[in-house]
Specification:
Elements (H helix, E strand, L loop, with lengths): L2 H11 L12 H13 L2 H15 L9 H20 L2 H4 L3 H28 L1 H6 L6 H27 L11 H26 L3 H14 L7 H8 L2 H8 L2 H13 L12 H26 L3 H4 L1
Helix pairs in contact: 1-3, 2-14, 3-8, 4-6, 6-8, 6-9, 6-10, 6-13, 9-13, 9-14, 13-14
């Protein structure tokens, strides 16, 4: 039985549930939503499996595509930016630096992009039965985590093979950066998923925004180029207010051993913690906006 059919059968089991009248308010409404989502843990797991398998359904290479894409990106950026533009001459172990940045970026970008399409993409199910609508963006982000873990595994193996595995306290930045990018990506994705039901052009705008955010974050260039260009001051602080930049640098500083002597923002750890707290607040607000808009999803779809 296909993954899609299995999850659809699981969804059918919930069809007897009636759409309740959820309480309003930030506290009671959030508690109600969390309880509803937790009650569908098994269903959420099935939806994640369906999302992962559907990407590679009827594909000859199957899950190998999850390896080929990041490897292709690595080769392109290494050759074009590292060799043609000379970044590799000023950034030690440029390949590991790029993979660390791309791994962090992919976690955020795939989470936002897939979550944005999640409600519209599951319109058939949403119009038939009632389940907490949040499970669809959550399942999309869960599937993105699979690709992230594959890329992170490649990165760790590469650092070991090159004798560059980091063994410093900087490794503590890795879980912080992961939580920051995941939380911020889910907050943005949850908000966009709801708005995209009413404004379908948003999904195309998201693609443009992700391109801008990619180059506005130090994914394929190091922070020393940023501080050299901006020279500190207000512009640099605005640049560092971007949670994606902080998450990317957390991955780079924790996994890029050759960059121990590179230029990093002052109080990077504190900045990441503050950004994580703010992202949790944004996630809370996004969930309440989602809950406010989900009442008319079936009609709009």
């Amino acid at each position: 039985m296909s993954a899609k059919r299995t999850s659809d059968n699981a969804l059918t089991l919930t069809s007897e549930l009636k759409s309740p009248s959820p309480p309003t308010g930030f506290i009671r409404g959030t508690a109600y939503s969390l309880k509803a989502i937790l009650s569908q843990r098994e269903l959420l797991s099935l939806l994640v499996q369906r999302e992962v398998k559907s990407k590679y359904k009827d594909s000859a290479l199957g899950l190998l595509w999850s390896l080929l894409r990041p490897l292709t990106q690595l080769v392109i950026y290494y050759v074009v930016i590292g060799q043609f533009l000379g970044a590799a001459r000023s950034i030690p172990q440029f390949a590991i630096f790029v993979v660390a940045g791309l791994t962090a970026w992919t976690l955020f970008s795939e989470s936002v992009s897939s979550a944005t399409h999640s409600i519209v993409g599951n319109s058939g199910l949403i119009k038939k039965i009632y389940i907490p609508r949040e499970v669809f963006p959550l399942a999309a982000v869960g599937a993105s985590l699979f690709n992230f873990l594959v890329q992170l595994g490649i990165l760790i193996v590469a650092t070991i093979a090159l004798g560059q595995f980091p063994v410093s306290s900087n490794l503590l930045l890795l879980p912080l950066g992961f939580l920051l990018l995941l939380t911020f990506g889910l907050a943005i994705g949850l908000f966009f998923a709801a708005v995209n039901v009413y404004m379908r052009d948003l999904q195309h705008l998201v693609e443009v925004l992700l391109i801008i955010l990619f180059w506005a974050s130090p994914v394929v260039y190091s922070f020393k180029f940023v501080t050299a260009a901006l020279g500190g001051g207000i512009l640099e602080q605005i640049y560092l207010a971007n949670p994606i930049s902080l998450g990317v640098m957390a991955f780079q500083k924790s996994l890029w051993a050759a960059g121990a002597d590179e230029v990093w923002p002052e109080n990077l750890e504190l900045r990441i913690v503050i950004a994580l707290i703010v992202s949790v607040g944004l996630l809370w607000i996004s969930q309440r906006v989602f809950a406010k808009l989900e009442g008319n999803f079936a009609q709009e779809l």
